[in-house]
Specification:
Layout lengths: L35 H30 L4 H33 L8 H18 L21
């Protein structure tokens, strides 16, 4: 009986195809990891938003019960909303700053570098090709770009 037929051995069942794989397998990610400052500000913003939502929920329930703590909690929830907005803007600003400082990748295969390289080769090629041969006698011999002295 083969392991595909459900023989009940160690290699049968849902894990029959992964017998050769190790425990930890690196799989390529779809997106690159966020830079550390951006990730830090994003985590900070999520924590602030979570605290603000908790405050708003508590404020709602305190208002329903008619407690005297409803007003201070409402003020704290309003302040938390302002701070949460600042946190979201902090993520956007940090991300933009990171992209402006470190976002330009200079790779040898980039189009700009390839064009620059071709322009340098063309300029070197023009220098190497013989153009006009300057005359040592005549009116242009003592002045201009073709001076041989």
């Amino acid at each position: 009986m083969s392991s595909d037929e459900g023989g009940g051995g160690a290699g049968s069942g849902a894990y029959a195809g992964v017998a050769g794989r190790g425990l930890w397998v690196e799989e390529p990610t779809r997106r690159r990891r966020m830079p550390d400052p951006v990730r830090t500000s994003a985590v900070r913003a999520v924590v602030i938003v979570a605290v603000t939502l908790t405050q708003a929920t508590i404020t709602f329930f305190l208002t329903l019960t008619g407690s005297w703590l409803a007003l201070p909690m409402a003020l704290c929830a309003i302040a938390g909303t302002i701070v949460a907005t600042w946190g979201a803007l902090d993520v956007l600003i940090t991300r933009q700053m990171w992209n402006q400082r470190y976002g330009v990748l200079s790779e040898p295969s980039s189009t700009a570098r390839r064009r620059s390289r071709e322009a340098h080769r063309a300029a070197r090629g023009r220098e190497a090709t013989p153009g006009r041969i300057p005359r040592e006698d005549g009116p242009l011999a003592t002045s201009g770009p073709y001076t041989t002295r």
